[in-house]
């Protein structure tokens, strides 16, 4: 048998061959493929020419495969099955039944995390959402599909393969315990008398507030750093520490602990924010 030239093979012929092998007759194969018997007979003729073998011969009123046809069937069956899997349209995404895990990288915001989790579980009760801490490798994780959505602050450069949507810019304020002496007149001089609380941020370039203070030459002294953001409220309420945070992350905390809200002596203004996702998974129904 001469070597087969794949670029000349009609995949429809292979589907016809499969039907002939499994059905054992031209008429039954035609019925299965919704073709006329003459069309199937014509396809069988082309297959015989292509493979230089009769492939199926009539024996006792039924088409019987030749040894070459049996060998072809053994090889082609898993290939055709794989093709069908590859070409099958994706299953429709149903929030009501999905049990997917959605991973979201978000700057600490307990109130927002609670609201989003509640809303997601109302629409997708069997889904799980995992809140991933912001860190320098987040963008690479996003491209690789390890997280679905990433909250990005600042004029950060987006690596290739990421799409994003801009959000309204955010504002920073300083916060202190109720009755804090600095609340009467928070200036650069008075602020320098107190130490600051910072929630740990895995950012090799420093926090936006630190960058702004260096820019304005208004250095601050850290008095404490916490790894767990919800500790910020109780830490402020029980000490003379100050902190400067985006308003959206303190939305609930400053009310709960009756904190003083102060104009910061150094903080970014109109700080840009965006949500980003991997372009590779932009059309995934669940991500959409």
TrEMBL record:
<keyword id="KW-0238">DNA-binding</keyword>
<feature type="domain" description="HTH lysR-type">
    <location>
        <begin position="9"/>
        <end position="66"/>
    </location>
</feature>
<dbReference type="InterPro" id="IPR050389">
    <property type="entry name" value="LysR-type_TF"/>
</dbReference>
<dbReference type="Pfam" id="PF00126">
    <property type="entry name" value="HTH_1"/>
</dbReference>
<comment type="similarity">
    <text>Belongs to the LysR transcriptional regulatory family.</text>
</comment>
<dbReference type="GO" id="GO:0003677">
    <property type="term" value="F:DNA binding"/>
</dbReference>
<dbReference type="InterPro" id="IPR000847">
    <property type="entry name" value="LysR_HTH_N"/>
</dbReference>
<dbReference type="InterPro" id="IPR036388">
    <property type="entry name" value="WH-like_DNA-bd_sf"/>
</dbReference>
<protein>
    <submittedName>
        <fullName>LysR family transcriptional regulator</fullName>
    </submittedName>
</protein>
<keyword id="KW-0805">Transcription regulation</keyword>
<keyword id="KW-0804">Transcription</keyword>
<dbReference type="InterPro" id="IPR036390">
    <property type="entry name" value="WH_DNA-bd_sf"/>
</dbReference>
<dbReference type="GO" id="GO:0003700">
    <property type="term" value="F:DNA-binding transcription factor activity"/>
</dbReference>
